Structures are given as C-alpha cells and as structure tokens.
Amino acid sequence: MHQRILIVDFGSQYTQLIARRVREHHVFSEVVPAHRAHQHLGQGLRGIILSGGPASAYADGAPDMDPAVLQAGVPVLGICYGMQWMCEHLGGAVVPGDSGEFGFTEIEVDHSDGLFNGVSAQTVVWMSHGDRVEKLPDGFARLARSSTCPEAAIGDPARNFYGLQFHPEVAHTREGVTLLRNFLHWVCECAGDWKAGDFAQELVRGVADQLGEEGELVLGLSGGVDSSVVGAICQQAVGRRCHAIFVDNGLLRAEERDLVESTFRGHFELDLTVVDAADRFLDRLAGVTDPETKRKIIGHEFIEVFREQAKHYSGARFLGQGTLYPDVIESVAAHGGATAVIKSHHNVGGLPDDLEMELVEPLRMLFKDEVRELGRELGLPEEMVARQPFPGPGLAVRCVGECSRERIRLLREADAIVRTEFELRGEHQGVWQYFAVLTGARSVGVMGDSRTYEEACAVRAVQSSDGMTADWVYPSRDCLQSISSRIINEVRGINRVVLDITSKPPGTIEWE
Ligand code: XMP
C-alpha cells in the first residue's frame, strides 16, 4: 500500500491540478468528492488536502463533508473554500468580502518556518475568492496576509491544520511548489517514492481489468498524443483486442490523415481502420453557428461512427478515448462535484445517454504534459509525443460561425501557413499551440484597385503547461510578417490577419 494523500473535491476547477502537483512530488494521491471523503480514511493515509470551490462556505447547500474527517489524525491543508469550510467547522467565521480578490496578489509572510520554510518574505500568489475568514478558530494563527485579505494563510501547528486563501497549485503562485513540497514532505512526512513507471503500469493493469479476459475495444484514434498514448496503454493491456479507428471528419488539418496513417502503420502493430466520414459531418453542420450545438453534433456523429465500426467486432463492448482532465473539468462537474460547466468537450459532453458501450479513458485524470511523459515511458516516438494538441472537434472550434466546406478550406489553408512559418523559424519550440482561427468577422480591404469584403483570420499562439491556464505568445515580427502576407496573398477569401493577445483565463485557448 502506497503512502497516500486524500484530495477532497469541493468543486474547484483546479482539483486535479492539486493531484498532479502531488504526483510531481512522487506521492500517490486520490481525489474524492467531499460527501464521500469519510469513506476513504485509514490505511496509508498521510494527509488531506481540501480543494477550493465556487460556493460560499456559509451558504445553504454548499458542498459539505463529514467533519469526522478532521479527526483522522493526519495533517490537513485547506485551500480557498477548503480553508473556509475548515474555519466554519472549527469555530471560526467566514463572511462575504467587501470586494473579491482575483488574480495576482502580493502577500507578506509572518511565519517563515514550517509550511512557509524557504518561501520569500514577500511573494506573489494567485487569489480567486469573494469571501474571507473573519474569525480564526481556536488554536489557529495567521501565517501570511495581503493588503485586502488579513488571513491569507493560517495554521494550527499543534494539530497540523493549515489553510491558504490563495491557490498554491496554479503556476501563477510563484512559490506554490515550495509550499506544497513543505506540506507533503515536512508536515505529512511523505517519502516521495512513487514513480511514473509505477503509474504507467497501474494504468495498463486498470485497462486489462476493465476489459477482462475477452473484452474488445474500439479506440478513437485522432493521431494526437492523447489517443496515441491510450493506444499504447490498450495495446500493452489487451494486444490485438484493441481496434483503432481514425475518422476523417472533414475538420482535420492539412495532410493530417496521411500523416496519421503513415505514422501508425509504420510504428504500431495496431489494427487501424480509416473511416471517410467528411460528408456526413459537414452535412450535419450545415447552417449551424452556435458553438455548443456544433460541439454536440460532432460528438454525436463521432459516437455514431464508432458504434457502427464496433459492430464489426463481436466482443467490442468498450470505447477507448483520449479524454484528459481539462476536457472533463470544463465539460462536466467532475466526481459529481459542483464545478461550473465551461465548454462541452466533444469526447465528454457529447455522449448520448443510451451509449451501449463502456468508456475506457485511462487518461481522464491527467494533464497533457503528464501524458507526454507517460508516452515516453511507454516507448512512443518523440515526434508523436511532442505534437501540439489538436482538439477533437478539429477546425470546427476555430471556425466561428458556420462550418461550410468553403470556410473550412480557408481555415485549413491559413492554418497550414501559420504552422509552417512557426516551424520554419523554430518559433514553435516550447509553444503549447500555434494555429489560425477564422474569426467570423468580415472587413473591407483594397487589393489592386478593387474593394474587397472578406474574412478576418486570427493568429493564436499560447504558452501553457497543461491547457488549464495559458499566456499568449508574441511571435517575431518576421514570422508575423510572413504569415500575414502569405495568408492574404495565397488564401483567396481572407483579406485581414490579426493577432490574438488574450490569456486563459479570461479567454479560452480555442475560440469556441
Ligand atoms: P480551451 O479552448 O478549453 O482548450 O482553453 C484547452 C485545451 O484543450 C483543447 N481542447 C480540446 N481537446 N476535445 C479535445 O480533445 C475538445 O473538445 C477540446 N476543446 C479544446 C485545446 O486545443 C487546448 O489545448
């Protein structure tokens, strides 16, 4: 039995980010919904982390947990809502703040030992809260403050209970890693001996168990890193009982289909079928402009294609997908928690209620960079592991408005130019994604002596480590210059190119 950390989910967008931070410290963790936390105490437990959440701790119906969890005899770290919940239940008080605190905030550290060991006396953290702790429970002392939040960090070292009003798990909190390391290794005394290889084998075993002796699986292979890693896991787990299906939905990037076929037929012993389904997807999308409707249609069509393909394999009761955690968290309330829905990702929000296949999603709780590590661990070629992410609904979520054949063609051509120009200069190195968006705006131009009234295309390039947060990237002037003149000269139907300079949050990476 591993030493383990229990992560209690109160509905935060960042719960799984906490889990991955714990994994980064080579400690095993388990995420559970708040109302079931009390069932997960006992063997191997070294500490508990309470996540944030969108509710107010004092509100009726706010996510709750059996307070007995606090008597498990292990250290507890409450983050944001988690800290406020702890205060409410230990005799403190939480009140609405005069004004919320969102974004970067500087805090001053009052106690530089213990949890804050090695953290600067003044440091920048990421806040996202409306309420604040007004009265500390008995035994607690302030550990850090900000100008608007006196209780930015609190602690009761005798019981090893700590609370942070900010989010140490997000990269914007400069010394968040140090704080979590202190909690895990110093407060909880975790040894940190849990490895990536153990993890890969756990996932392989999980799939083998799920499929049993005879189960067969149909795997949606997109050619991206996620489904490729799922392919590698499933192959190790069940060998030729895994049937990979690549769907050409008419929303692929230039040359994608050829690349996927040659890569997979070259590298894998996978049973691969390519389905030409462009017409059926594009026909269903004709006239549709609402982003969520587009996503649902695409998700639905994917499932129909997989169902049809599954009929070719008598035992195929399972559907494999490369769903990652950011897809889940932005589509549904994970673990029955209270997270707000941001977008329905095609492989999550679009699933029908009557799906007669059981889902196999071994990456459902992981982040992209972890999946890349796992891919390397499983022996996938670097060119596949390092590919930029491409969303399941493909170019549709970058084509604002109708996805007509003509508009998808414009976008595909513009996107190929953006990618080529980045890669030619090596400016794609270290960049998470770089692509073109058809914005749906039209504008007046002049070409030769004639007036034009055509589409505007945006260049979107972002830096990110997991897709949950992202910063926009500023390509070199030379790169932008080539992109702009090539698109305007070579792609008939686009007469304007703009640069998207929006971070996530408040934007999302894709436009829809
Ligand atoms: P957003 O636009 O939500 O994107 O900030 C975060 C990351 O997820 C990718 N993405 C998707 N991936 N199915 C996927 O497999 C989807 O429906 C989907 N939507 C967005 C996006 O490319 C980015 O890397």
What do these coordinates show?
This protein has about 500 residues and is an alpha/beta fold. The chain folds into three domains: about 5-185, Class I glutamine amidotransferase (GATase) domain (Rossmann fold); about 195-385, Rossmann fold (3-Layer(aba) Sandwich), CATH 3.40.50; about 405-500, GMP Synthetase, Chain A, domain 3. About 30% of the residues lie in helices and about 25% in strands. It has 13 helices and 18 strands. It has a nine-stranded mixed sheet, with helices on both faces. A five-stranded parallel sheet has the order 12-11-10-13-14, with helices on both faces. Strand 16 and strand 17 form a beta hairpin. It is globular and about 75 Å long. Residues about 330-340 have low confidence and may be disordered. Xanthosine-5'-monophosphate binds next to helix 9.
Domains (count): 3
**How do the strands line up in the largest sheet?**
2-1-3-4-9-8-7-5-6
Between the first and last Cα atoms, what is the distance in angstroms?
43 Å
Bound molecules: xanthosine-5'-monophosphate
The average pLDDT is 90
Number of helices: 13
Number of strands: 18
The poorly predicted ranges are 332-338
* Shape annotation: globular
Query: What is the name of the CATH architecture of the largest domain?
Result: 3-Layer(aba) Sandwich
| CATH homologous superfamily identity of the largest domain | HUPs
* Strand-residue proportion: 25-35%
Structural class: alpha/beta
| Helix coverage percent | 25-40%
Q: What is the third-level CATH name, the topology of the largest domain?
A: Rossmann fold
Major β-sheet profile: 9 strands, mixed
